[in-house]
Structure formats: structure tokens, C-alpha cells
């Protein structure tokens, strides 16, 4: 037994939040487990408060855009009241908080989960990101790398070679997905005879939904299509995408559906799922769509997507930069020649037990008096 502290920045709907909740529920069956959210706002607030693990909200106020570390001091105060344990920081957005909060508190080794590309960009911002990653790697008891693509970064590759890092791809419970897909239809569009192209993810530049809007606008020149994007975002992000869709001529056939607790009900009824991301780790949304048998298209820039799709055997791949290329792929995946995923999603089972094994290794080191890199 040992105390496991799973840290996330906030409770907004995202793959990171869903993964953290699943891991907390799994670990709670074996260990004293606390899910700690730096900020309490988010779609999943009610869900975590009903969960079988303990939940701690450090700050009720929304996270200020200018800072990601405002929860560091409340976290440090809380940690000082807790027994020794392992901190698992689940999302790149929140790593600075436990990193700062636990300095000098040797009874809380850290596992950082790297779920997004660290080598993207150049110039000063890219250099600063790399320096920050070097600092995290040095601070960590272990690094969990979400998928193979991220491990190609030289510093993470070295950590993998030494055993300091472990590659853990995203996964999905296919049987649970199929059961959730049988929920009532989430939108009236699915009762009408117009194909719906689906995107899933937060409304961030990383997700490249602008490209998807442009591609659907081109693809619908020969037939009527609708585009729905499931995911949360700021008012400015929503406004920008709505303006893009209006300029592209999508009009009433464009929907920003907001956040949902059941993506499978959407994915199962859509005609097609598209992952147009500029970068990813190992996309959970891609696996969720594949789990319900949906034809998919993914950008080659989207992390492990080429590997997951078997270089095109389980879905189509596009370059991720040209709307015309994506539009052509949409036509194929809406036709009788569509490339379907088959049972490929079953090759990517939920990774909770792998994470627990990694955590238990660190707990064993603590119990044996072996000091980790923390």
C-alpha cells in the first residue's frame, strides 16, 4: 500500500482529464488514491466528486491564462499535511505546479506524464520548452511517455534507453465504448439523412480544426455534409471557428457541440471521424472513434496516428497541411471504398495497470530507502 496523488491542472473535458479519472479509479482499488485538481472549473467536476477515490480541489477560481502555477502554493500546503506518496502529474499543462510544490519535500517523488510533442516549434519558445523538459526529466523519479512518437525526442530517447522513462500508449476499453455508443442520440442531426463529419478535441491551435473546416467546405461541393466538433474552448476560440465556418459557407451545417461525457454516442452515429492535429502524442480520440468501428482519417503530424492506423491499413492518412488532400480523403471514407478500422482498437487496451506498475516501482523504491531522481 502507498499514497498515490494524481495531479491535473483542471477538470475541463479532455483526454488528459479522462485518463486521470480512469487511472484514479483503477489505483483506488489497490492504494490510497487522491485526485488533485489545481483548479476546480470544468465539465467533469460533478463526476470526480461522485467517484470512488478522494478528490481535492486546490483553487475554486478559474485558471488564469497568464499563469499555470497559481495552484503550486496551495498544493505545497496540502502536501505538508499528507503521508509520503508518489505524485503522478498527468498533463503537460500542469507539470510546473507539482514540480514547484514538491521541491524540498523528499517524501513525494514525481512521475511526469509527457503527452504532447516537446520538439515542436523553433526559436526562443522552442528552446525554452526544451530546457523546461530537461529540468522535468532531471526532477522525475520516472517519466511516462504517451506513445512512440514522443520518445523520438533525443532527451526522452535517452531516458527510455536507461529505463528512466517508459513508453505507454493511450488505450480504450472497446466493450465499454460499444455499450456507451448505445446511449440515446446526442443530437437531432443523427436522425436526418445528411452525413456528419466529426472532430473531437479542445478548440486549440494544436487540433487544427481550421483545416477540417476548409476541407469539409471543399468536400461538400459535390454533396451536402455537416461538420460537428465536440470539445470545449474559450469564447474567443469558439468565435474564431464559427467565423471560419461561416466564411467557408458551412452555415447551419456547422456545429460546435461543446463538451460531453459520452464521446462514443457521437462517434458511433457520425459518418466519419477526422483527426487533423498539427501534433499529438497518442490520440485517445482516434482510438475512441475506432473502437466503435468508425472510418477515420488522421494527419501524419498527429503523433502515433500512422502507427495506430498501420500506415493506412486501418484508416486513411493525410499530410495534415492541405485542405484539398483532406477533402479527397473525406470523399473516399464516405464511399463504398472506405477503409475501416476493424478490430485494431483492441490492440490498444486501457493502460491503467501499466501506470500502476510504474507507480508501484517508485513506491517500492521509497519503502526500500532507495532515492530516485526526485
UniProtKB/TrEMBL annotation:
Q: Which residues form the Glycosyltransferase subfamily 4-like N-terminal domain?
A: 14-160
Which is one GO molecular function term here?
glycosyltransferase activity
For whether the record's keyword set contains Transferase, the answer is yes
Key words, A-Z = Transferase
InterPro entries found in the cross-reference section: Glyco_trans_4-like_N (IPR028098)
Question: Is-annotated flag, keyword Transferase?
Answer: yes
- What single Pfam family name could you report for this chain, choosing any that match? Glyco_trans_1_4
What PANTHER family would the database entry show? Answer: GLYCOSYLTRANSFERASE
Could you tell me what this protein is called?
Answer: Glycosyltransferase
